[in-house]
Amino acid sequence: MPSAPDPARLSLNTATVKAQWSLAQAIEGCARHGIRGIAPWRDKLAEMGLKQAAKAIKANGLTVTGLCRGGFFTAKDWLDDNRRAIEEAHELGAQCLVLVVGGLFPGTKDLIYSRDRIRESISIMLPEARKAGVPLAIEPLHPMQAADRACVNTLEQALDICDALGDDGRSAQCALGVAVDVYHVWWDPKLRQQIERAGKKRILAYHICDWLVPTRDLLNDRGMMGDGVINLRLIRSWIESAEYSGFHEVEIFSERDWWKRDPDDVLRTMKERYKQT
Amino acid sequence: MPSAPDPARLSLNTATVKAQWSLAQAIEGCARHGIRGIAPWRDKLAEMGLKQAAKAIKANGLTVTGLCRGGFFTAKDWLDDNRRAIEEAHELGAQCLVLVVGGLFPGTKDLIYSRDRIRESISIMLPEARKAGVPLAIEPLHPMQAADRACVNTLEQALDICDALGDDGRSAQCALGVAVDVYHVWWDPKLRQQIERAGKKRILAYHICDWLVPTRDLLNDRGMMGDGVINLRLIRSWIESAEYSGFHEVEIFSERDWWKRDPDDVLRTMKERYKQT
Question: Cβ atoms within 10 A of the Cβ of A261, count?
């Protein structure tokens, strides 16, 4: 059995209240509800302004558990955009920059080619990220998003990339690791084994929510912890066995439900539910 | 490069025209369009009557490339139901009984437990299937269907079950193997490797269709070959490298599109598109 969930390690991924709140409001919300971590998205960050956001986050004593997101190596301007993302993550003191790597490259059905290009792109940006002190977290996305969002779809595959490009393992934290989001990986028969393989140094972020039955949309129908079928306690026990001691970040895309609620209720509920995971 | 697609190896999974045709109509449709294989679903089979269906299929010289479906070990009456499915498959001379194994067992979030129970259930029905001369084809389903339809979600996982329970490999065809449906496995980074591992004797069925972008429904939004992003030619080359020489069965669940069309047009289109795969 894992230890009791520690409220001090709860983090709000701002996507969870993206329909209701600006980043400034989300920062205030976290402070108001005693949530200590925040993971902003870059569109909201741009809206608020980087300097002002960094200042507000610092003033409220929040930890930036990740910046969402870099990656999308399928885009024409991917290198410039990822350079900006690294700068922003550095400025915010983010614990990692989350990479959603992009799906099939334009004009091809060749997954192998697309995956090779992704690995190559990560290898190109990695030295700059390392120089800036920003760890890169490859986030494997659910296989249902392989075509259009990310064709890195299992933890095993993400760790193979880390093995190929990553650190020698002697530093305290790796410059290249993974973001483990239960929504994307809960189904994987090799999940326990691959969490163990990843280990403390390479698990750079841990995202939680729930898988609803039925799921009515491939992108924006995630559930609040406890409303679905993911065995969150079991996966947390595996994460803790790997000695991960970072934040647990709540990331819920929910067109039909949570994005329509009072955001203060969302934060209250997520704190409450976290205790039961 | 694979060889040119052989029209004599095309098979119609009746789900493709399930909204329009009874089984009797589908049998006549296959005969009319020169399609040599058919894979009926059991609800339509019950509607037509087993004896009459067997007679009509034989009279038209069709090969039954699979009976859909056994499995769903999560149901209370699973053993009786699977026994009936074996009998029906035997009566039809089906090349295999397709197993959709079921998702999480009622009342649990424990995937490991559910997967153990599934393996155990297959081990119980396997001797009876072997005795009846009906090969069982485990069909790994897409991870997005893990909770409610099948928690066997990769070819690797299905083959691990075959390894644990299966034949010694000395017979010409295995009593326990897999159904490879491109829709469920196209995204898998280990697909080529696992098709090779499966080999000729354990690939009991090969199902084709396409993955649409965007996909608007988790169950009934499959595409016709050529309308999506699956590299069908490449996967066919892997299947052929494994020396699979059976039928290519078209299975398309399509609430919004193909189920609304003239079924003769559906068959014409599928024949035409098959040539391009």
Answer: 15
Residue B64: C-alpha distances to residues B14, B90, B92, B173 (Å): 11, 10, 7, 16
State the pLDDT at residue A85. Answer: 98
- List the Cα angle B190/B195/B198 in 5-degree steps: 120
Across the interface, do A213 and B157 touch by the CB < 8 Å criterion? no
Mutate to test the interface with A, among B229, B238, B255 (most CBs of A within 10 A): B229
pLDDT digits (tens, 9 = 90+) for B144-166: 999 999 999 999 999 999 999 98
pLDDT at residue B170 greater than cutoff 80: no
Per-residue pLDDT at B1: 67
What is d(CA A28, CA A21) in angstroms, rounded to the nearest whole number?
A: 10
Q: Is the pLDDT of residue A171 over 90?
A: no
**Chain A contact set for B104 (CB, 8 A):** 229
The reported pTM is 0.97
Distance CA B143, CA B162 (A): 19
Nearest by CB to A189, from B148, B153, B211: name it: B153
Res. B173: pLDDT tops 90? no
Collect all residues with Cβ–Cβ distance below 8 Å to B157 and sequence separation of at least 6: A189, B115, B140
Contact B142 A147 (CB under 8 A): no
Minimal Cα–Cα distance from B115 to chain A, Å? 9
Helices marked H in chain B = 23-33, 42-48, 50-59, 78-92, 111-132, 155-165, 182-185, 191-202, 232-241, 263-275
Instruction: Count contacts between A and B (CB, < 8 Å).
Output: 79
Distances (CA, A) of B76 to B121, B146, B213: 12, 19, 37
Could you report the per-residue pLDDT of A209-265, keeping only the tens digit for each?
A: 999 999 999 999 999 999 999 999 999 999 999 999 999 999 999 999 999 999 999
The string of pLDDT tens digits covering residues A71-112 is: 999 999 999 999 999 999 999 999 999 999 999 999 999 999
